[in-house]
């Protein structure tokens, strides 16, 4: 049905939406510090990249990714792949 769906990236598997917003994509949150402590940095990066892929591929037409401070190194560095906007 029409409306807003709010959930985790895990819960979004298999679903599609016209627009997707993924929040907390700063270097402080991705890779997840708790996952890094539990599994190690490399495994945490791999897990968070898989989840980020799930989220990004749920969007049919619009994708917004937000972060505060420094963006995560898991996001693309090539400015030709995205449009960056600053909100103040």
Secondary-structure blueprint of this entry?
Layout: E1 17-22, H1 33-39, H2 41-56, E2 59-65
Parallel strand pairs: 1-2
Protein architecture, described:
With 88 residues, this protein is of the alpha+beta class. The protein has helices at residues 33-39, 41-56, and strands at residues 17-22, 59-65. A two-stranded parallel sheet has the order 1-2. The radius of gyration is 14 Å and the shape is globular. The termini are far apart.
Notable characteristics:
globular, 88 residues, 2 helices, single chain, alpha+beta, two-stranded parallel ribbon
Given the helix and strand composition, which structural class is it?
alpha+beta
Q: Rg, please?
A: 14 Å
Percentage of residues in strands: 5-15%
State mean pLDDT (0 to 100 scale). Answer: 91
As laid out across the biggest beta sheet, the strand order is: 1-2
Element order: H for helix, E for strand: EHHE
Give me the number of helical elements: 2
- Classify the helix fraction into a percent range: 25-40%
The low-confidence runs, each spanning 5 or more residues with pLDDT under 50, are none
Apparent shape: globular
Distance between the termini: 33 Å
Main sheet makeup:
2 strands, parallel
Tally of DSSP β-strands: 2
Produce a short descriptive summary.
With 88 residues, the chain is of the alpha+beta class. The chain has helices at 33-39, 41-56; strands spanning 17-22, 59-65. The termini are far apart.
């Amino acid at each position: 049905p029409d409306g807003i769906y709010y959930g985790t990236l895990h819960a979004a598997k298999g679903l599609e939406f016209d627009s997707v917003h993924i929040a907390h994509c700063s270097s402080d949150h991705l890779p997840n510090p708790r996952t890094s402590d539990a599994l190690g940095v490399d495994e945490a990066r791999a897990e968070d990249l898989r989840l980020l892929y799930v989220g990004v591929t749920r969007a049919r037409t619009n994708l917004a990714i937000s972060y505060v401070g420094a963006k995560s190194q898991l996001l693309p560095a090539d400015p030709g792949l995205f449009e960056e906007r600053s909100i103040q």
